[in-house]
Design goal:
Layout: E1 10-17, E2 23-29, E3 38-44, E4 50-57
């Protein structure tokens, strides 16, 4: 198991295995000095290294999400 996140509240909401043996996960974080929540999408390869990530700020605390990937 590998931890991704920071010192504050972080939560993975959904994760899915990709056809290349890795994972794609979505969630949110309030770490790293964020005054508001940050929606985060992360692609992890088959050995656990982060391939890429995308952060999107949103103004509230409500979030519900899922992810589909074509790998």
């Amino acid at each position: 198991m590998k931890a991704i996140g920071g010192p504050d509240i972080d939560q993975a909401i959904y994760a899915k295995t990709t056809s290349d043996g890795g994972y794609i996960t979505v969630g949110w974080t309030k770490s790293f000095g964020a005054a508001v929540g940050i929606f985060i999408l992360v692609k992890i390869n088959s050995v656990g290294a982060i391939e890429w990530n995308k952060n999107i700020r949103w103004p509230g605390d409500e979030v519900d999400c899922s992810v589909e990937a074509n790998y």
